[in-house]
Design brief:
The protein has about 350 residues and is an alpha/beta fold. The chain contains 12 helices and 13 strands.
Length: about 350
């Protein structure tokens, strides 16, 4: 399978996300549409739209962008527990129908602002048990009719989602991405996800996780096609390595002036985030060009580690991940619109993507 490249669109209530340009209309429909259309123009498959309380609703933003584009594929982040399975399966099937099969889904099992959502506290076993049941049930609702299910977390009777999801070559329904580094998360991915997303960890660490997930898929009796793998990482690309590193270090110097840790306590407590932040203890630069310093000064998630260099150097690093089995890349840097164009022009053609 050839590699696919997606970007990130910052559906944020507050401007300036991770150094993005601060404008009053940063999350207007026109601004976000301009980014989605630029992604089409520069050869990207689509973009991840993140989710969280206090941000514009991800599904609503994805629907609006799908209506204003022709090939752009939104990777829509959602949280089980804040959606009911049949409600979600219907909404996704409808958007997939209206967009001509362009919907991708990123399942986020981590906790959010529970009280704001009206949700209750759960232990990890219950939370991931619910996520696995949600994924199994949504897949059934997309591929079967008259679904009845009595589970530990959900019950439905004689449920048929309309419109029906149209199966396409290699894609029986919207692709289900999943993240998480805990043992409970990896078990869910091995059993029921389509794509496991990793953050920017060193090659050896990613290789270890891929090997473990493949073995775990066998042990849990996976009944689906083999699990695929993706990488969500910041990429700082310039004409030369010296220029890229100067830009990266200048950005980190600005971050260090405030040194604000990630504000979400649930995010900070996640196993994957702890793994990323610990990387800086192993060195400021790992492998050829994986920069760990952002994690010391508040970079969270994909902003914790960066691949830095010329387009050729970053491409070489991405190919090493590809050699391990990564086939889905979700990249980003800020300012988002400027950088999606730069990397679309200079990085993607190195992978045969026509601009």
């Amino acid at each position: 399978m050839s590699a696919e490249f997606l970007w990130y669109i910052p559906n944020q209530a507050t401007p300036g996300h991770r150094g993005d340009t601060v404008t009053a209309d940063h999350n207007s429909l026109d601004t976000l549409t301009a980014q989605a259309r630029a992604l089409e123009e520069y050869g990207w498959k689509g973009a991840l739209l993140g989710t969280g309380w206090g941000r514009p609703d991800t599904f609503t933003v994805a629907t609006a962008l799908a209506a204003r584009t022709t090939t752009f594929e939104p990777l829509i982040a959602i949280r089980p527990g804040y959606w009911q399975p049949a409600q979600f399966a219907s909404a996704a099937a409808t958007l997939d129908h209206l967009s001509g099969g362009r919907v991708r889904i990123n399942i986020v099992s981590g906790k959010d602002d529970l009280a704001a959502y009206g949700a209750a506290e759960e232990d990890q076993a219950d939370r991931y048990g619910r996520t696995e049941e949600f994924l199994r049930l949504v897949r059934r609702l997309w591929t079967e009719r008259h679904v009845t299910h009595h589970g530990n977390h959900y019950r439905i009777e004689d449920s048929t989602v309309v419109p029906r999801v149209v199966a396409r070559p290699g894609r029986p329904h919207p692709t289900l991405y999943f993240g998480g580094a805990s043992a409970a998360a990896e078990r869910v991915a091995a059993a029921v996800a389509d794509v496991q997303l990793f953050w920017g960890e060193p090659l050896a660490d990613v290789a270890e996780r891929i090997s473990r997930l493949r073995g775990l898929s066998d042990r849990v009796g996976r009944e689906l096609p083999p699990l695929e793998f993706g990488l969500r990482v910041t990429t700082v690309v310039r004409d030369t390595a010296d220029e890229a590193w100067a830009v990266a270090r200048a950005k980190v110097a600005e971050m260090a002036k405030t040194a604000v840790r990630p504000s979400d306590p649930h995010h900070r407590g996640a196993v994957g985030q702890q793994r990323l932040e610990a990387l800086s203890e192993r060195g400021e630069v790992l492998d050829d060009n994986l920069y760990t310093a952002p994690g010391r000064f508040g970079g969270g998630g994909a902003g914790t580690t960066w691949l830095v260099g010329s387009a050729e150097e970053v491409a070489a690093s991405l190919r090493k991940y590809e050699d391990l089995g990564i086939t889905h890349f979700v990249l980003s840097d800020t300012p988002y619109l400027e950088e999606l164009r730069r990397q679309g022009e200079r990085l993607l053609p190195l992978f045969g993507v026509a601009v």
